[in-house]
């Protein structure tokens, strides 16, 4: 959705194919099926300008196209954690059947190393007569910030078949043209081989996931020794070699990308006989962390939450999205529910998506203060901006108890404690007593 719409914004004619009838109807009626700030306006403008269309007819969309982007899902396969490429291969086969004239078939989906080459094989088998090239153009968009990330990227990666120099040049020229507006902004455009581009995507996401996991472990250590993780993160981040981004401690990284891509990279490494042990550990530490967070809340409650009312602020895996995939709130709320707590939850965008994945007994509230109503404990799961400005006195007026577990460090420990709360957060000595040896 975002890439297609942004290409249209660059002045390119884009036809988006959507096979889900409900989603297609919504799109044709101008309703955007995902929550992404700014996307609705951009879609509307480009549809009006006649550059962006939605349909379910692959042949019509592919006819005369210079490039066809495959952006279907590659979910984790159950059991081995590998990315499931069946949707990609199915899409490619359909594209090959209807392509007319030279076409570059580009993967936007995050696919295992070697997928581009397999795609080329499938196309050759399906349409031996077709003149085509395969390219890999991984996306680095963050949900909630995707348009900005597309329009002002740190870099664009374009991988083409390094063993086919003539095809490489033709494909590169088409993709270079597509990204010309970014070229003018002096965005680095890195041309690589197919396998390299595929591995860049997994390496980038896994490195960021590892960085988060590192600061999460340092955060735990801070609690034991009386250090402050915010100061540690800021100070190490000032070293340009480390960088200050993605050093916010959390109840664990979630979403549709980091958990899936870290698992996939470990599978790629194992299969290639070159295990990526740092990432294997990252996966394990992160999964354990989410469970630990549930236990932390239970311990904070005094070891037993049965019969307690727990207010929960934020459910999605991060703010500015309605995405609940692999959100830390899922295991945490599950533990609280199993422990017999009554849960009152509020999320500004994710309540519809949360319902099917959270315990049935959760009560969904109209706003943050409603979630705090009668609560013995309040737990912050996602750092939506609107929670930061909540006055502690207002929370106190709604709550029955005086305990806050802030798992995103959104509040100043002193201000919250001054308002009479018993407060824990992540890795900050003002909020947690140092461990007594
Ligand atoms: C991630 C990458 O950041 C994008 O560059 C990439 O394009 C995308 O995956 C993808 O592969 O499609 P996204 O999953 O939207 O983007 O979200 P992030 O902002 O990266 O956050 C992921 C998780 O890490 C969230 O649960 C967030 O709360 C957590 N996180 C992030 C932290 O716990 N601490 C941080 O400092 C930053």
TrEMBL record:
It catalyses: UDP-alpha-D-glucose + 2 NAD(+) + H2O = UDP-alpha-D-glucuronate + 2 NADH + 3 H(+). Pathway: Nucleotide-sugar biosynthesis; UDP-alpha-D-glucuronate biosynthesis; UDP-alpha-D-glucuronate from UDP-alpha-D-glucose: step 1/1. NAD(+) binds at residues 23, 74, 110, 143, 260, 325. One of its GO terms (molecular function) is NAD binding. Gene3D superfamilies: Cytochrome c1, transmembrane anchor, C-terminal, NAD(P)-binding Rossmann-like Domain. Pfam families: UDPG_MGDP_dh, UDPG_MGDP_dh_C, UDPG_MGDP_dh_N. Its EC number is 1.1.1.22. The keyword Transmembrane helix does not apply. Residues 311-413 form the UDP-glucose/GDP-mannose dehydrogenase C-terminal domain. SUPFAM superfamilies: 6-phosphogluconate dehydrogenase C-terminal domain-like (SSF48179), NAD(P)-binding Rossmann-fold domains (SSF51735), UDP-glucose/GDP-mannose dehydrogenase C-terminal domain (SSF52413). GO terms for biological process: polysaccharide biosynthetic process; UDP-glucuronate biosynthetic process. Substrate binds at residues 140-143, 201, 246-250, 254, 318. Keywords: NAD, Oxidoreductase. The active site is at residue 257. InterPro entries: 6-PGluconate_DH-like_C_sf, NAD(P)-bd_dom_sf, UDP-Glc/GDP-Man, UDP-Glc/GDP-Man_DH_C, UDP-Glc/GDP-Man_DH_C_sf, UDP-Glc/GDP-Man_DH_dimer, UDP-Glc/GDP-Man_DH_N, UDPglc_DH_bac. It is an enzyme of class 1 (oxidoreductase). Belongs to the UDP-glucose/GDP-mannose dehydrogenase family. PANTHER family: UDP-GLUCOSE 6-DEHYDROGENASE TUAD. This is UDP-glucose 6-dehydrogenase. It comes from Komagataeibacter intermedius AF2.
